[in-house]
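Predict structure. Chain length: 113.
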Amino acid sequence: MTLIKIISISIKWLSARFKWRYLKEILEKEGIDMMCIQETKLQKLQKSDCYNLQGDNNIEWVNLEVNGNSGGILTRWLKVSFRCECQVVGKGFIGVFGKYSRNTNCSCPCGYG
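Prediction complete.
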């Protein structure tokens, strides 16, 4: 059985470049398939930031931009590990539902509040 590696982390002010480097190191070192990040504080997420985090474009993601001074969520996953079938975005949360390892159901909620 193939396991999916998921990490959930709260990282305030993701706009700081050193935090992007820190996340990239974690992804590379641990072989993470899916990452859920709370409290990004990002007003606008750039595609290039997500691609640079992984080193290629073999990823997909969904994000919830910051609301005032709180929040911001980014959930990103490797397309080869996880096939997203549904995304639910609400006030303070993201839910991603799909399949990994061919046909195994997987749900990944991410939120703050």
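Summary: Helices lie at 17-30, 47-54.
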